[in-house]
Structures are given as structure tokens and as C-alpha cells.
Amino acid sequence: MGASETATVALQRTHVVGINETIAIGAAQEVVIGAFQTVNVGAYQNVNVGLYQSTNVGTNRSVDVGANLSTTVKDNESRQVGAGRTTDIGKDDELTVGKNLVIDAGDSVTIMTGKASIVMKKDGTISISGKDITIDGSGAINIKANKNVVIKGRKILQN
């Protein structure tokens, strides 16, 4: 064939290969689809990108995985969400951080399970609520207040 090839099909084109097909392109490839594209792979698909991959979706994107999903990032990961974010986990969730974990909320942070909760508000108010609350320190426990320390209970026991 010469230096260039052009194929124009007015309505439909079907391409059937009985077993294998290999396409080798020396520099760049561009695929333009006017309306809709479906890709069906019967068993396994592997995509290798040598340097950089970018995906842009005009409005919504949905990913459904039948069993497990694993993501590995060798260096850093960052995410930006313009509005709200919700995560719903059916069973357990575990987070392991090698050094520091910072949770920075504009108005409040609430940690809750059942009838127990810890609420921290931006004005500095911290509320710990629950049936029985135990503070257990292997060293000294220091309480300091610029105002009164108020302890209320049916019976207050010391040592």
C-alpha cells in the first residue's frame, strides 16, 4: 500500500476475524464515535499505558465490579469532590496510616456507633456521650480548665 489509506462507508461496516487480530500503529491513533460505543470482552482485558492516561467524562460515570476491586498507587493520590461524598460499606472498614492522620472539617466532626458519640464543633465544644464512659491512662491524667470543673453523679467516688 502507499503512504495513506482512506476508507469511507456510507451506512454500516462489519469486520469479523475468526481467531486473532493484531493492529500495530507506529505513532498515534484517534477514534471518533459520533454517538454511542460498546466494548464487550468475553474473558479478560488488559490495558497498558507507558506514561500517562487521562479520562474525561462529560457528566456522570459509573463503575460496577462483580467481585473485588484493588487499586495500587505507587506514590501520591489526591481527590477533589466539588459537593458531597457518601461512602456506604456493607461490613468492615479499616484505615492504616503510616504517620499522621488529619481530619479537618469546617463545622463539626461526629464519630458515632449506636448510642455512643463524640462530637467536636468548630467553636471548640467537644461532647462525649454514652452509657458508660471510661478514661484509663497508664500514666498521669491531667484536667485543666480556665473556668470551673463540674462533676455530677449519683455518687462520686475517690480512690
Short structural summary:
The chain has no helices and three strands.
Count the beta strands. Answer: 3
Spans of at least 5 consecutive residues with low confidence: none
SSE string: EEE
Shape: elongated
Q: What class, by secondary structure content?
A: little secondary structure
Which strand order do you get reading across the main beta sheet? 1-2-3
Fraction in beta strands: 5-15%
pLDDT averaged over residues:
95
Largest sheet: 3 strands, antiparallel
* Count of DSSP H/I helices: 0
What does this structure look like?
- This protein has 159 residues and is low in regular secondary structure.
- The chain is 0% helix and 10% strand.
- The chain contains no helices and 3 strands.
- The protein has a 3-stranded antiparallel β-sheet, with no helix packed on it.
- Strand 2 (116-121) and strand 3 (126-129) form a beta hairpin.
- The model has no long low-confidence stretch (mean pLDDT 95).
